[in-house]
């Protein structure tokens, strides 16, 4: 998608990530917990578009796992990733170029 936007790759310096529960997807399980379908979106605010989305069943995956999968397919050199508090407990990636969570 970015390749279709003139100058798209050059102006992306920050991505915003958020997860949402899909309305009407919650069901109560036999043990009294709730299972639902959720979706994580990676959004490029500078371009005004969602770059990637992943839908998952909370019984089979988590928001952290879904976001990590989405970010692993994007080229992120020099890009700031903005996510909510759920993702501040530990770094999403390890390595010399990745740094731990920051708070604001």
Reported for the largest beta sheet, the result is: 4 strands, mixed
Distance between the termini: 30 Å
| Helical residues, percent | under 10%
Shape summary: elongated
Uncertain runs are none
Number of domains: 1
Tally of contiguous helical segments: 1
Give the number of DSSP strands. 6
Question: How large is the share of residues in beta strands?
Answer: 25-35%
Q: In terms of structural class, how would the helical and strand content be classed?
A: mainly beta
Order of helices and strands: EEEEEHE
Query: pLDDT average, as an integer?
Result: 79
Strand order of the largest sheet: 5-4-1-6
- Rg measurement, Å: 15 Å
Index terms:
about 100 residues, 4-stranded mixed sheet, mainly beta, elongated, 1 helix, two-stranded antiparallel ribbon
